[in-house]
Design brief:
By secondary structure, the chain is mainly α. The protein is built from 7 helices and 2 strands, in the order αββαααααα. Pfam families: FtsX.
């Protein structure tokens, strides 16, 4: 992207100013630089022979806990006093805290959405209570047992919950993929254990709703319900 923005291509020459000395270089390869990882990376890589005679410095990156960092800093200060140690722990911890707050906000929004879904499910059960009572009464008259009626409701509501959960996952993927891949330019990965947990939760809640609806319907005698129609 940098080469494209600068209008550079293979074979072009670029003049670099290194320690007050101009060095003419030629582009022999273009590569994509990923700065999202922990390892070191640079926009330009030169042949070591190009910088012969220059007073260069080596760069090393280490990842360790606070105790190890303090011990290493003391050791370097004693043995190699000219070495500079730059700690980015505080910046990383601040970034991690920020992302934790964002994750908490997302989880809070998801909890509110889940609560709203439960209220909608409860409203749907209450709204269809009379119709379910008529269905259960009719099935009883036709000879269906209590277990068969319960099983029918469980299968119906469970299937609805599974389909709704799958639709939610697909819509979530469709909304998240452009943000992750196009905006943040990150690698797309799916937490399948979380997806399965979501589907299981949606199916379980819907099944529970079916059991409640069936229990309310079966609690009424068939004759009064059918006469009420």
């Amino acid at each position: 992207e940098i080469a494209e923005a600068a209008g550079l291509k293979l074979g072009d020459t670029v003049t670099l100013l290194v320690l007050g000395q101009e060095i003419e270089t030629r582009i022999t390869v273009l590569r994509k630089v990923e700065f999202g990882g922990f390892g070191p990376n640079f926009n330009l890589i030169l042949n070591p022979a190009t910088l012969e005679g220059a007073e260069l410095r080596s760069v090393a990156i280490a990842r360790m806990d606070k105790a190890q960092e303090a011990a290493l800093t003391r050791k370097l200060g004693q043995t190699l006093p000219t070495v500079n140690v730059i700690s980015v722990r505080e910046q990383l911890e601040s970034a991690a805290a920020l992302f934790d707050r964002l994750a908490l906000a997302v989880r809070g929004a998801a909890a509110v959405a889940g609560l709203a879904g439960l209220l909608v499910l409860a409203g749907a059960i209450a709204a269809g209570a009379r119709a379910r009572a008529r269905e259960a009464a009719t099935l009883k008259v036709l000879g269906a047992t209590r277990g068969q009626i319960l099983l029918a409701y469980v299968i119906e509501y469970g299937a609805v919950g599974l389909i709704a959960g799958a639709a939610g996952v697909l819509f979530g993927f469709a909304a998240a993929w452009p943000v992750v891949v196009k905006v943040f330019e990150a690698t797309w990965s799916v937490d399948w254990s979380g997806v399965l947990a979501l589907l299981a939760g949606a199916t379980g809640l819907a099944t529970l709703g079916g059991l409640i609806a069936a229990s309310l319907a079966l609690a009424q005698r068939p004759a009064p319900v059918l006469r009420g129609d």
